[in-house]
Specification:
This protein has one domain: Sandwich (ATP Synthase, domain 1), CATH 2.60.15.10. The protein is mainly β and about 80 residues long. The protein has strands at about 1-5, 10-25, 25-30, 40, 45-50, 55-60, 65-70, 70-75. It starts with a strand and ends with a strand.
């Protein structure tokens, strides 16, 4: 799936990923390929991405929103 993690200052990640974990405001969210459409707010925590090569990357965020649609994950983070 295609993943983009964007802050007002920069693009933290842009590329293909196998798995994304997000700190949802109502609890943790695990996103895999073919996930149902979703929009959620995020709380302070770590976004973890397992990229297409199997490497796990971690990005700390202060909050934000996520949209999952058609194997694309868009994270607008603070």
């Amino acid at each position: 799936m295609r993943v983009e993690i964007i802050t007002p200052e920069t693009v933290l990640f842009q590329g293909e990923a196998e798995y994304v974990f997000l700190p949802g405001s109502s609890g943790g969210l695990g996103i895999l390929n073919n996930h149902a459409p979703l929009i959620s707010s995020l709380k302070k925590g770590s976004v973890r991405v397992k990229d297409a090569q199997g490497k796990e990357l971690t990005f700390d965020v202060l909050g934000g929103t996520v949209e999952v649609l058609n194997n694309q994950v868009m994270v607008l983070a603070e």
